[in-house]
Specification:
Chain B: It is an enzyme of class 4 (lyase). The complex is a heterodimer of chains A (414) and B (457). Chain A is of the alpha+beta class and 414 residues long. Helix content of chain A is 42%, strand content 8%. Chain A has 15 helices and six strands. Chain A has a four-stranded mixed β-sheet. Chain B folds into two domains: 314 residues, 2-methylcitrate dehydratase PrpD; 125 residues, 60s Ribosomal Protein L30, Chain: A (2-Layer Sandwich). The model of chain B has no long low-confidence stretch (mean pLDDT 92). The chains are: A alpha+beta (414), B alpha+beta (457). Chains A and B meet through helix 5 and helix 6 of A and helix 3, helix 8 and helix 9 of B.
Chain lengths: 414, 457
């Protein structure tokens, strides 16, 4: 807020002030990833958070007479997603859960630059430069995952991609072979094999063949398998125990998970750590039956029953459990004091691309998230607008709803 | 926890005091400050600077910080830092250290901007400023020592964008008097803002690396001051989950000793190289070698007669991004052994004007470029401490004249004299400032330790 002039762009959920597009993109991007609640793709990245805040913020910065249609926005968004996916395919490393650089900071920045370049209608040369400039902003080490900084990776990806496109528009030039060379995008990977994109004639969009996973609760994707398995185990335990969870009869909780160091946290203390902990989510789901936004609040993170259960929890890494969102599985095994073992294995959680959320459940998630922040009319307005995005003449209606204004305030825009 | 590498850095930043600066360190760092300002001033006349400035002017609300060469223009602190950082590296005229990075451009602009941001009652003194500057340099140097990779001319990530960002965060954290924990987080946040690939070197985007390093480092410190927290082990070795090690293939971090006592600033033992003309450091060896063989040639032939030359043989280290037989832009020309050798041969000197459009494209120069042959002797290591440049003229007559340079004038082994440094500064600053202002800056920097309000700079 310190650096705010040219106040054109909405901060989602806030009617009271605006920011320049760069900072709006940043702040909204941070919001999107703040709880690790946003979408995840395969190969692994969080594609939307790096792109949507940037294109929306940018669309608000155009002069009044230049309208951006819903279709323009949808196209730019998809360009941004596609570029990310294609880049991820250039390295075999990218197929597994990352260890070195956090993917949104790498490909997300490039995706944002591409999407913004599209919206700004940059010519081919300017698009090349936008990508080249963006590459010099890309990359953040994984060690900041599970800290308060991680959301900034997405915020910065959105912001810097937008900045790169704007600088390219002003004529700044970078290396026009930035995606081709090892010393370009290749710098972020140990194996890098770029390919040219297919021609636009009947273009095979990656999103066509590979959907995203939508999270049902705000934590690292790998914990979703654990949650489903743990919930199933709880049901079995409770059935055989008069509908009560036999906590004191539990001797050990064993989680068979892939080896992902930054999600292996036996005793998380902050909300960020809790969202990146197999152990925490397993115990939470065992205790409560399901996970929600509230599962990660301070009270729940520190409750004694949970801490006790955490002490009984250990991880195992079966060699066949590869750290890839496409193939990993999680088994939760509870050993009771009487020697009995109750277990369940989850190979595909509900929300994964193999078992996508149904329309009602996606809307339910949206409504639950927007509740209390946007008025009901704005909520419905957004759902309506997004479903019919191709027909929307002026996508600024979306921004108006996002700032919390209701439908009655803008009949002419609809 | 002080036993971690990251913790030791945070403690160092927090606990360093002016008394810890030795005389040598003070003197060397003041030279760097002066050179950096001069280079930034002349850099404010470049195209890349224009783009950066016009972009930043969109966002300048709390406009308190000055911009090189633009009296009356003020920007928000981080954007002023960005713009001035871009100016500093715009012509590749700024200082270079060993292990390789451009240390001052990543730190000075952030400090200048931040000093103007602080309220009158808490303005840092010149001594505070000098200390913060040195903290920023020291952090960069120490980080580079964590990887043997860093000793050679880089191939993957451009060092200013890696260590420069953390150096800026450290310096800003020091100037803003952050607590030890906040210093730690500033470093952690900065790591997530670091890193730009080498491929943009020799393009117009390269100056952004320094601009962003200094800007984002300042941002990191400001975020840390507001309570943002990152991984407190960001500089430590964390197997399976990379922190700062993400930028290197080999990474062996060590804790920093506490200031005073056993700690010695790296600048004490390892000085900086200042450039005499605006091009990549590697060019300086080749130019000095070319000038020496040119003298021989002129004595031999009476004048410089290119028609007598059959071939020009350059013996240089292997480094792809500075090996360019036919550069087409000023940025490429500044990163071309071949171009710099030929310009030196033709003109008898290399300066600002050598890199103009007309100079780059002139017929005589292109003809000479066609005669250049490049060799990479095994003993010529791509390392600013060990490399050499050799230029041999193979004449049609069969004679061979050779010039070799192990240590160019301006290198840390043969530092610029005070007069030469001042001459460079005056020449640079005169592009945008009147004489009184120029002399005032020289005096101010020379007496930095006695200044009570460093925002005067």
């Amino acid at each position: 807020q310190i650096y705010s002039s040219d106040l054109s762009s909405t901060i989602w959920g806030h009617l009271d002030f605006r920011l320049p597009p760069l900072y709006a993109a940043f702040v909204n991007g941070v919001a999107v990833h703040s709880m690790d609640f946003d979408d995840t793709w395969h190969p692994a990245t969080h594609p939307s958070g790096a792109v949507l805040p940037a294109v929306i913020a940018l669309s608000e910065a155009f002069p009044q007479k230049k309208k951006i249609s819903g279709l323009d926005l949808l196209l730019a968004f998809n360009v941004g997603i596609e570029v990310q996916g294609r880049l991820l395919h250039f390295s075999r490393e990218a197929r597994n859960i990352p260890k070195r650089f956090h993917p949104p900071a790498v490909v997300g920045t490039m995706g944002s630059a591409a999407a913004c370049a599209k919206l700004l209608a940059l010519d081919q040369l300017e698009c090349k430069n936008a990508l080249a400039i963006a590459a010099s902003y890309a990359g953040a080490p994984l060690a900041n995952a599970a800290t308060q900084i991680k959301p900034l990776h997405v915020g910065n990806a959105a912001k810097h991609g937008l900045e790169a496109a704007c600088l390219a528009l002003q004529g700044l030039q970078g290396n026009k072979q930035i995606l081709d060379t090892e010393s370009g995008m290749g710098a972020f990977y140990t194996d890098y094999n770029p390919q040219t994109l297919p021609t636009l004639q009947s273009y095979p969009w990656l999103l066509d063949q590979q959907d995203v996973a939508i999270k049902r609760f705000p934590a690292h994707l790998a914990t979703h398998w654990v949650a489903d398995a743990a919930s199933a185990v709880r049901r079995k335990l409770v059935e055989s125990n008069e509908n009560l969870l036999p906590l004191d009869k539990i001797e050990k909780v064993i989680l068979k998970v892939p080896e992902v160091k930054y999600v292996n946290r036996p005793s998380p203390v902050s909300e960020h750590e809790a969202r990146h902990s197999f152990q925490f989510v397993a115990c939470s789901a065992l205790l409560d039956g399901s996970m929600s936004v509230q599962s990660f609040n301070s009270e729940n993170v520190h409750r004694p029953a949970l801490r006790e259960l955490l002490c009984k929890t250990q991880l195992e890494h079966p060699p066949d459990n590869t750290p890839s969102f496409d193939s990993l599985y999680c088994e939760v095994r509870v050993k009771l004091r009487d020697g009995n073992m109750i277990s369940d294995c989850c190979t595909t959680f509900y929300g994964h691309w193999r078992k996508p959320l149904k329309k009602e459940d996606l809307e339910k998630k949206f409504q639950s998230n927007a509740l209390g922040i946007l008025p009901a009319e704005a909520m419905e307005g957004i759902i309506e607008t997004v479903y019919n995005l191709e027909k929307v003449e002026d996508c600024s209606v979306l921004s108006t709803f996002l700032s919390g204004q209701s439908a009655r305030a803008l009949p002419e825009k609809l | 926890p002080e036993d971690t590498v990251t913790g030791s850095f945070a403690s160092f930043i927090h606990a360093a005091r002016p008394e810890h600066l030795s005389q040598t360190v003070r003197q060397r760092s003041k030279r760097m400050i002066l050179d950096s300002i001069g280079v930034g001033l002349v850099g404010s006349t470049t195209r890349v600077f224009d783009i950066a400035l016009s972009y930043c002017r969109l966002y300048s609300s709390v406009a308190v910080s000055s911009v090189y060469g633009k009296p009356g223009v003020k920007l928000s602190p981080t954007l002023a830092a960005f713009t001035n950082g871009v100016a500093t590296h715009s012509m590749d005229f700024d200082d270079t250290w060993h292990p390789a990075t451009h240390p001052s451009g990543a730190v000075l602009p952030a400090l200048l901007a931040a000093s103007q941001m602080l309220p009158p009652s808490t303005k840092p003194s010149g001594l505070d400023f000098l200390l913060a500057f040195n903290v920023g340099l020291e952090v960069q140097g120490r980080l580079m020592h964590f990887s043997t990779e860093a000793h050679n001319i880089p191939k993957r990530f451009h060092p200013p964008s890696v260590v420069g960002t953390l150096g800026s965060a450290a310096a800003a954290a020091k100037l803003l008097s952050l607590s030890s924990a906040e210093c730690c987080h500033a470093l952690g946040i900065a790591a997530s803002l670091a890193g730009a690939p080498m491929a943009n070197a020799a393009t117009q985007a390269k100056p952004l690396h320094v601009g962003n390093a200094t800007r984002l480092g300042l941002e990191a410190a400001l975020l840390a001051a507001r309570g943002m927290e990152a991984n407190p082990l960001i500089l430590d070795d964390i197997p399976g989950c990379s922190g700062f090690s993400a930028f290197y293939s080999v990474y062996q971090p060590k804790p920093l000793p506490a200031p005073g006592g056993h700690h010695e600033f790296l600048l004490e033992k390892q000085d900086i190289a200042f450039k005499r003309f605006p091009a990549h450091l590697g060019m300086h060896w080749v130019v000095d070698a070319a000038l020496s063989v040119r003298n021989l040639f002129v004595n031999y032939a009476g004048s410089f007669s290119p028609s007598l030359i059959r071939a020009i043989m350059l013996k240089i280290p292997v480094s792809k991004y500075i090996n360019r037989p036919f550069p087409s832009s000023e940025h490429q020309a500044r990163h071309s052994f071949q171009f710099n050798a030929c310009a030196a041969l033709l003109d008898g000197e290399v300066g600002l004007g050598s890199f103009s459009e007309s100079s780059i494209h002139r017929q005589e120069l292109r003809e000479l470029l066609h005669k250049v042959v490049v060799e990479h002797p095994e003993d010529n290591v791509a390392n600013f401490d060990k490399m050499y440049g050799e230029v041999a003229l193979l004449l049609h007559s069969g004679d061979v004249l050779t010039g070799k340079c192990d240590t160019f004038y301006g290198h840390w082994r043969k530092p610029l004299s005070k007069e030469s440094l001042l001459k460079k500064f005056r020449s640079n600053a005169s592009h945008v400032l009147p004489e009184e202002k120029i002399e005032a800056i020289i005096t101010l920097v020379d007496n930095l330790e006695t200044l009570s309000d460093s925002s005067q700079l």
